[in-house]
């Protein structure tokens, strides 16, 4: 039988219950292996309950000191009740000076106290009791998150100026640098917003006309990492040149914003609009493809005909985006009528073009000529696929060198990979 004896307005602050006649402090902290919240309890006395009822500051201090013990219990371990119980008298019944001395020796959750209104400067100086004079029952989690974020930056040697902080707030990355940036002008002090917008304008001007293409090798909505890096480098250089006073965090968040927005535009663009060229344009007259077969390394096949609503390159890269995986990195485009095709080896950044050297006679298999070439990223693949679709293997001559000797090709690939 468990009865609640005392609880505060905030449901997260530890409450006191009576269980089988015994007083216990109950608090939620951490999560189990199934990501469900864990609950911990340990025994307290009547004198401890009296202080908890009357003194919010001491109650919060006890909570902050017990939380590290809960963290130590992990996802399935037991709370060290002896260690928790040993904190009761020193925190709840000792003098402020003794409490301050104790908090200089033990681990405690500073962020939790800051969220409940503690004076940060006094906490940093070790005057925990004085810091808690302004404590509140309700918490301001954002205040605690800001402290934690600034602490992480300080550990890296980064100190934000007012404009740096405003830029990070504008992109929504002030608290969490790993979040996807967005434009949040309402989060910025109106007095600083014009300066923030000048920085954003510098970035926009620098990357005007640049785009981040899609990379179907990595999935249907993946984007080209090289395009991303190229845009980020361009924006970084422009922003640093125009605003040299900004710290790295502020510059990076602006380039991250520009790249994220460009990537989003690319992801929402139909695959056909992402092609390197129009494969339906004239490119060598009769060499232009009318029927093609796409296959992957798993034996899945898809046909394309010139009367289709979408271009061959769009259909092919859609096929790659749907099928590409770590164990499915070889894709082929074949023109059976012309007896030629290309095979893309994504795992090796290479390609093979295959042409029929001699037709088979009397039921014999045809003889094929296979030539290999290295490929420079997804942009290189796009160019080669588009060229083949528009002009066949002959049109690929100018995109060589093409190496018929496998050993020679492997040597060239090793040289590239070691550079």
Describe this structure as you would to a colleague.
The structure is a single chain. By secondary structure, the chain is an alpha+beta fold. It contains 16 helices and 10 strands. It has helices spanning 46-54, 56-73, 81-85, 88-92, 96-103, 110-115, 120-124, 128-131, 141-155, 162-170, 193-206, 225-242, 248-267, 312-323, 377-391, 406-418; strands spanning 2-6, 15-19, 22-31, 37-43, 291-295, 301-305, 330-335, 340-345, 350-358, 367-374. Strands 6-5-7-8-9-10 form a 6-stranded antiparallel beta sheet. Strands 1-2-3-4 form a 4-stranded antiparallel beta sheet. A hairpin with a 5-residue loop joins strand 3 (22-31) and strand 4. Helix 10 runs parallel beside helix 13 (248-267) and helix 11 packs across helix 12. The model is unreliable at 273-286 (pLDDT under 50).
Strand content: 15-25%
Beta-strand segment tally: 10
The averaged pLDDT comes out at 90
Structural class: alpha+beta
Estimate percent helicity. 40-55%
Measure the end-to-end span: 72 Å
Poorly predicted segments? 273-286
What is the count of helical runs? Answer: 16
What about the largest sheet? Answer: 6 strands, antiparallel
How big is the Rg? 32 Å
What is the helix/strand order? EEEEHHHHHHHHHHHHHEEHEEEEHH
Overall spatial form: elongated
Strand order of the largest sheet: 6-5-7-8-9-10
């Amino acid at each position: 039988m468990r009865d609640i004896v005392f609880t505060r307005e905030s449901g997260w602050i530890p409450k006191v219950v009576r269980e089988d006649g015994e007083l216990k402090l109950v608090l939620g902290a951490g999560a189990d292996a199934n990501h469900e919240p864990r609950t911990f309890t340990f025994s307290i006395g009547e004198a401890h309950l009296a202080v908890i009822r009357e003194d919010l500051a001491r109650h919060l201090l006890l909570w902050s000191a017990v939380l590290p013990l809960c963290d130590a219990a992990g996802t399935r371990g037991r709370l060290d009740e002896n260690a928790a119980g040993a904190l009761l008298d020193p925190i709840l019944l000792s003098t402020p000076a003794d409490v301050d001395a104790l908090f200089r020796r033990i681990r405690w959750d500073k962020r939790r106290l800051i969220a409940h209104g503690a004076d940060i400067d006094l906490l940093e100086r070790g005057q925990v009791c004085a810091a808690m004079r302004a404590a509140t029952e309700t918490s301001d989690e954002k205040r605690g998150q800001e402290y934690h974020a600034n602490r992480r930056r300080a550990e890296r040697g980064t100190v934000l100026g007012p404009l740096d902080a405003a830029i990070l707030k504008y992109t929504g990355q002030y608290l969490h640098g790993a979040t996807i940036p967005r434009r949040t002008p309402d989060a910025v002090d109106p007095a600083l917003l014009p300066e923030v917008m000048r920085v954003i304008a510098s970035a926009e001007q620098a990357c005007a006309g640049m785009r981040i293409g899609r990379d179907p090798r990595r999935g249907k909505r993946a984007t080209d990492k090289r395009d991303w890096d190229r845009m980020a480098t361009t924006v970084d250089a422009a922003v640093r040149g125009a605003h040299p006073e900004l710290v790295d965090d502020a510059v990076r968040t602006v380039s991250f914003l520009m790249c994220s927005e460009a990537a989003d535009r690319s992801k929402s663009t139909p695959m056909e609009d992402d092609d390197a060229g129009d494969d339906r344009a004239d490119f060598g007259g009769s060499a232009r493809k009318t029927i093609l077969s796409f296959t992957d390394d798993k034996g899945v096949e898809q046909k394309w005909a010139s009367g289709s609503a979408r271009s061959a390159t769009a259909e092919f890269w859609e096929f790659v985006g749907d099928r590409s995986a770590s164990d499915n990195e070889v894709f082929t485009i074949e023109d059976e009528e012309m007896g030629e095709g290309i095979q893309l080896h994504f795992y090796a950044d290479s390609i093979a073009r295959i042409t029929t050297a001699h037709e088979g006679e009397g039921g014999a298999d045809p003889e094929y000529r296979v030539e290999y070439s290295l490929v420079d990223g997804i942009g290189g693949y796009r160019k080669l696929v588009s060229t083949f679709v528009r002009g066949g293997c002959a049109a690929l001559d100018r995109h060589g060198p093409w190496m018929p000797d496998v050993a020679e090709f492997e040597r060239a690939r090793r040289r590239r990979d070691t550079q």
